[in-house]
Design a protein that fits this description.
Length: 402
C-alpha cells in the first residue's frame, strides 16, 4: 500500500495561547489564509468570495450538534459525566448509546437519574456493557419525545476537550453552523462556523451554488494518532447521508470548481466515489437494505479499478434512481493520508487542526508539503487555531490551476 508514515512528520508546536477558547463576536470576522500553488494570502473570511472562482459549487455538511454531554451526581456526591457517541438502538421512551464515561469507577450497577425542575420529565441511565474504553448505556425517560429532545433538556454542549472549559450560554448557538438541520453530531463541522448570510450573498453574486450532505461527526475526530506509523491508526466510523438531488447537481456542476466546506464534507464526497466503484463492481450489497453502504478505512488504497469521477458519481445516482431512493445512508471510515488521489474536490475550506491528527493528515494529502508552510505562517502571524479559530482556503496542489 504505502511506505510507513511517521506521525512525527505531522507534528508542530501549538502553544495554548494560540488555541481560540471562545469565538469572535461576529462569525465572519475570523482570518482566512488562502493558499494556492504554495503562495499565501492573508485576508478575512468576509472576503471569501474574492478568492472563490465564479460558478463554484460548494458542498456543506448540514449536521446539527446534539447536546451530548450529560452530568449526573450520585447521592453521595460523585460526579459522573456521560458523553454520548453513537446510537445503538432506540424506541419509544428509551435509547441505547455507546458512550464515554468520566469517573466510571465511581458508577457501579445502580441507575443514575436527572429530573427537570420545569416539568415532570425524569431521565435515567443504566450501564449495560463495557466495550474497550467505551460503555453501552441505556437511557429511559417518561415522556413521548425523541432522545435528541431529551438531550436538549438535560444535556450540555459537547465542546472539544482541548478548549479545557465548561460551556457557556453563547456556545449553544456559536458551536453550531447557521445551516445545521439534522441532529446527530457530537462535534461541530467547524469550517462552517464562519459562514454568515452575508458571506452566502457575496458568493451568490459570483454565481456560486450550494448544496448539502450530512455526516454526523463523532468524538473520534479528536482522537490523536498515537501509533508511530499512521498506517497503524484505527480510523473512527461516521454516518453519512446522501440525497439524490445533491448528487445530480454535483454531476451537473462537475466542470466547475468543487469546494468542500470542511474535512467532513470532503471525506463524504470522496466516499461517494468509492461507493460508485463498489456499485459498478458489484461489491455493494444490492439486497435490502439497498440504501446502506460502508466504506472501510483502507478500501480506497486496496480497491482495483479506475473509474472516472463522473462515472462513479453517475453510478451512485443511477443506483438511487433505479431503486427509487431519495436518500442513501451508510458509514465511512475512509482515512485520507498523504498519497491519496482526490477524485472529487478541487478546494477545501477548513480550520487549523491539532498536531498529529487524522485531520492534519488529510490537509497534508491535499496540499502536499505546503501544509507546514501554511501552519508556520499562521503561527507567526497571530492566527487563532482549532474549532473556534481562523480558517484556510486550500486549492488542490494537483487539480487546480492557480
Amino acid at each position: 500500500m504505502f511506505e510507513p508514515i511517521p506521525i512525527t512528520n505531522y507534528n508542530y508546536s501549538l502553544p495554548d495561547n494560540k488555541i481560540a477558547k471562545f469565538p469572535l463576536e461576529k462569525r465572519d470576522e475570523t482570518k482566512l489564509l488562502v493558499m494556492c500553488d504554495g503562495s499565501i494570502t492573508d485576508t478575512g473570511f468576509n472576503k471569501l468570495s474574492d478568492f472563490v472562482p465564479s460558478t463554484s459549487f460548494l458542498v456543506f455538511n448540514n449536521t446539527r450538534v446534539i447536546k451530548a454531554r450529560l452530568v449526573f451526581h450520585k447521592s453521595e456526591g460523585a460526579r459522573i459525566e456521560i458523553f454520548c457517541l453513537n446510537e445503538e438502538d432506540a424506541g419509544e421512551g428509551y435509547a441505547i448509546w455507546k458512550c464515554y464515561i468520566g469517573n466510571a469507577e465511581k458508577w457501579k450497577n445502580n441507575d443514575l437519574y436527572l429530573e427537570d425542575p420545569n416539568s415532570t420529565i425524569i431521565l435515567s441511565a443504566s450501564k449495560e456493557n463495557v466495550e474497550g474504553n467505551t460503555y453501552i448505556v441505556k437511557f429511559k425517560w417518561n415522556s413521548v419525545m425523541s432522545f435528541e429532545e431529551v438531550l436538549e433538556i438535560f444535556g450540555n454542549v459537547p465542546l472539544p476537550p482541548y478548549l479545557n472549559r465548561e460551556p457557556v450560554a453563547d456556545d449553544r448557538e456559536r458551536y453550531q453552523t447557521i445551516y445545521a438541520r439534522h441532529d446527530g453530531s457530537v462535534a461541530a463541522p467547524t469550517a462552517g462556523l464562519h459562514f454568515t448570510d452575508q458571506v452566502f450573498e457575496d458568493l451568490q453574486k459570483k454565481e456560486c451554488s450550494f448544496n448539502y450532505l450530512t455526516l454526523h461527526v463523532g468524538a473520534g475526530t479528536f482522537k490523536p494518532v498515537t501509533a508511530n506509523n499512521a498506517l497503524d491508526h484505527s480510523m473512527h466510523e461516521e454516518k453519512v447521508i446522501l440525497n439524490r438531488d445533491m448528487l445530480l447537481r454535483l454531476i451537473q456542476n462537475f466542470q466547475n470548481t468543487i469546494i468542500s466546506v470542511g474535512t467532513t464534507s470532503m471525506r463524504s464526497l470522496e466516499s461517494i466515489y468509492w461507493l460508485g466503484l463498489q456499485i459498478i463492481q458489484g461489491v455493494h450489497n444490492t439486497q435490502p437494505p439497498s440504501a446502506a453502504f460502508n466504506i472501510d478505512q483502507w478500501y480506497p488504497y486496496q480497491a482495483k479499478g479506475n473509474l472516472s469521477s463522473i462515472e462513479a458519481l453517475s453510478a451512485v445516482y443511477d443506483y438511487m434512481k433505479l431503486h427509487n431512493l431519495k436518500e442513501m445512508s451508510g458509514y465511512t471510515r475512509i482515512m485520507i493520508i498523504p498519497g491519496y488521489k482526490f477524485r472529487i474536490c478541487d478546494a477545501l475550506i477548513t480550520n487549523f487542526h491539532q498536531p498529529q491528527s487524522t485531520l492534519l493528515l488529510l490537509v497534508a494529502a491535499f496540499t502536499g508539503s505546503n501544509w507546514r508552510k501554511a501552519y508556520d505562517h499562521a503561527l507567526a502571524n497571530e492566527y487563532r487555531f482549532l474549532s473556534y479559530g481562523d480558517s484556510c482556503l486550500f486549492f488542490n496542489q494537483y487539480k487546480h490551476d492557480c
